[in-house]
Design goal:
A: 294 residues; mainly alpha; two-stranded antiparallel ribbon; 13 helices; B: 368 residues; Rossmann fold; OB fold (Dihydrolipoamide Acetyltransferase, E2P); 2 domains; 6-stranded mixed sheet; 8 helices; membrane (chain A); transmembrane helix (chain A); Sugar ABC transporter permease (chain A)
């Protein structure tokens, strides 16, 4: 090492030390424990791929993955559609109203998850909840949104879209503001209606932003944990709601770690999830590259 | 036929009057250029014609049909934007055919019309490229092609060459003149560049402060401006303006003193001068101001201090300072001069244009 560069290395040392301690070490040790049976008290016992096999073969994993796929397939496109609609709405206003709508729609993003979940547990409450009250006005019977296996997943999806729409809206709004007004004027002169302008100008021009929002939304959705955990009042020994209708992989992983005290299995679960996220994200980038070539 | 009549058009944005009482008749097949400084309202007037802006007052008629409430896409106009406004995700062909697609035209019809426009603009080899893969000139051609495909009655150009480099601008100017000759369609062109306006226009409309200052053929505006603004705006370098005092009024001439604060006295051919105007402003173009030979002195020569010499090769512009501090530019075709030297200029009184204190042209009696 050239002594001239010593101050440079010293300056990056604090970051490298913290990164190694809190990021690299957990990953490497987690990978090590994923091949061991370990309860954090006794010595780790090497079991090869047994942890991975046990997870993939378990009914809880199948249920969690099924819930996850259903959740992702609905939440990501629907969430982006809602956020896109809100962004178009806010963009059509200016000054005070634009700022007001933007703030109101962004509010759920800054709410702590427990508060958002508490609000929605109250909204979904069978007897006095706001949603059931409104349904009652139209003559519909009361629905047990968070305890009926037919409605639990959709109730969660509604809450998650409510929570995430504001964030996606702000990103999409920034993208909308970057589209030159000239293009809309040209489209107007070319005879495009407002809807055709959205279809032929807005959406193609927003494609890179939409890709980011979709990828980010997909990665977040694959790690869904806090809102369903709080909505179902889960604990480490009892989670996933009635008949595991709201059981998700991260929840299952946490249960195996802190409920069953099987840290080896939990580590293996983490790597399965990581592999899943990498494959899905790579797939997204691959699709985009193919579309660009076409 | 595409006669455009603009009657009493006004436009305000909040409390700001952008256009005031615009009256203009544009004849079929005419190439009209709106020219003026930034903020004069020329682009707003073009956008009003296109339908992108609504009028606050007044009326527009195209071939007798009232346009005010007609949708921009159905006005029979097509616009070429300063920024080109090409859809970046579409190929050149898709950009050019977009309006036809929106109108529900058949694919074969779109292909045929786009192909024709591409042939006119020599764009055939670039039709599969996206705007990002085209040069500035090619993008401009695609933007013009998009307008041609619509077969408009009136083409509207909003400073379409301002993003191009100087050489390409000259080339595109020639192409636009050629295009106008071939299509014989009414064209309205907005620019702040008076050279562009002079070279392209059948008729120029000079705007300032939202008001038409003068309208006419380019050389008429150059030789015979109605006011000081038009006189100063048209021509490069701009016209010289010098203060002077009317010492004597004769039946067919006036005698001017204190020209630019100098002791020179000149007899100016002028019929019917109103004796009440004692102070006037002279307007004279640089080509009518000459540097006096050092070995020759005439009565009307004015002592000046040369401040700057611009040698452009074929012509030299000598900037000088009058005794009052007023600036004057003289054109010299062959001489070489040095800055910061005293010199004498010779003004041609027969070329003087006179303006009153309000900047209005003082015309001879019997003159137009």
């Amino acid at each position: 090492m050239n002594s001239r560069h010593l101050p440079h290395y010293l300056m990056v040392l604090p970051f490298v030390a913290l990164f190694a301690a809190f990021f690299l070490y957990p990953i490497v040790s987690g990978f090590y424990y994923s091949f061991h049976d370990w309860n954090a008290v006794t010595e780790p016992h090497f079991v090869g791929l047994a942890n991975y096999e046990r997870i993939v073969g378990s009914r809880d994993f199948s249920r969690a993955m099924w819930n996850l796929v259903t959740y992702v397939v609905i939440t990501v496109p629907l969430g982006i559609a809602v956020a896109f609609g809100l962004a178009l709405l806010v963009d059509s206003f200016s000054g005070f109203w634009s700022n007001l709508f933007r703030s109101v729609f962004f509010l759920p993003v800054v709410l702590p998850a427990f508060l958002a979940a508490t609000i929605w547990r109250w909204m979904y409450a069978p007897n006095f909840g706001l949603v059931n009250m409104v349904l009652g006005w139209f003559g519909y019977p009361s629905v047990n949104f968070l305890n009926d296996t037919d409605t639990m997943l959709y109730s969660l999806i509604a809450v998650d879209i409510w929570v995430s729409a504001g964030f996606n809206m702000v990103i999409l709004l920034a993208g909308l503001k970057n589209i030159p007004v000239d293009l809309y004027e040209a489209a107007r002169l070319d005879g495009a209606s407002r809807l055709q302008q959205v279809r032929h100008v807005t959406i193609p021009m927003l494609a890179p932003v939409l890709f980011f929002v979709m990828t980010y939304g997909l990665i977040s959705a694959l790690q869904v944990f806090d809102v369903p955990w709080l909505l179902t009042g889960s604990s480490f020994t009892n989670y996933g709601g009635r008949q595991n209708a709201l059981l998700f992989p991260v929840m299952d992983m946490m249960g195996r770690a802190f409920g069953s005290v099987r840290f080896g299995q939990a580590s293996a679960y983490g790597f399965i999830l990581t592999a899943l996220i990498i494959v899905v994200t790579a797939g997204m980038f691959g699709l985009r590259a193919m579309r660009r070539k076409a | 036929m595409a006669q455009l009549d603009i009657t009493g058009v006004a436009k305000t944005f909040g409390a700001v009057d952008v256009l005031r009482d615009i009256n203009l008749n544009i004849r079929s097949g005419e190439f009209v250029v709106f020219v003026g400084p930034s903020g004069c309202g020329k682009s707003t007037l073009l956008r009003i014609i296109s339908g992108l802006e609504e009028v606050t007052a007044g009326e527009l008629r195209l071939d007798g049909e009232r346009l005010n409430d007609v949708d921009p896409a159905r006005r029979g106009t097509a616009m070429v934007f300063q920024s080109y406004a090409l859809y970046p995700h579409m190929t050149a062909a898709e950009n050019m055919g977009f309006s036809l697609k929106m109108a529900g035209a058949r694919k074969s019809e779109i292909r045929e019309k786009v192909g024709k426009a591409a042939a006119i603009l020599q764009l055939e080899r670039h039709m599969d490229r996206r705007p990002g893969q085209l040069s500035g000139g090619q993008k401009q051609r695609v933007a013009i092609g998009r307008a041609i495909v619509r077969e408009p009655k009136v083409f509207l150009f909003d400073e379409p060459l301002s993003n191009l480099d100087a050489e390409l601008r000259v080339q595109m100017r020639a192409e636009l003149i050629d295009l106008h000759r071939r299509l014989k369609t009414t064209m309205i062109y907005v620019t702040h560049d008076q050279v562009e306006a002079m070279t392209l226009a059948d008729r120029m409309v000079v705007l300032n402060g939202g008001v038409i200052q003068q309208c006419g053929r380019p050389l008429d505006l150059y030789d015979d401006p109605d006011n000081r603004f038009v006189a100063g705006f048209i021509g490069s370098p701009k016209m010289n303006f010098l203060s002077a005092t009317v010492r004597e009024v004769r039946p067919d001439a006036i005698v001017l003193d204190d020209i630019g604060g100098s002791s020179a006295s000149l007899v100016v051919p002028f019929r019917g001068f109103d004796p009440s105007g004692r102070t006037v402003e002279i307007g004279i173009r640089p080509e009518h101001v000459r540097l006096a030979p050092s070995n020759e002195r005439l009565d009307g020569d004015v002592e000046v201090e040369v401040t700057l010499v611009e040698e452009l090769g074929d012509v030299t512009y000598v900037h000088a300072s009058m005794p009052t501090g007023e600036r004057v530019i003289a054109r010299s075709d062959d001489a070489r001069h040095r800055a910061e030297t005293p010199s004498r200029i010779r003004l041609d009184p027969s070329r003087f244009l006179l303006f009153d204190a309000a900047g209005r042209r003082i015309r001879q009696s019997g003159a137009a």
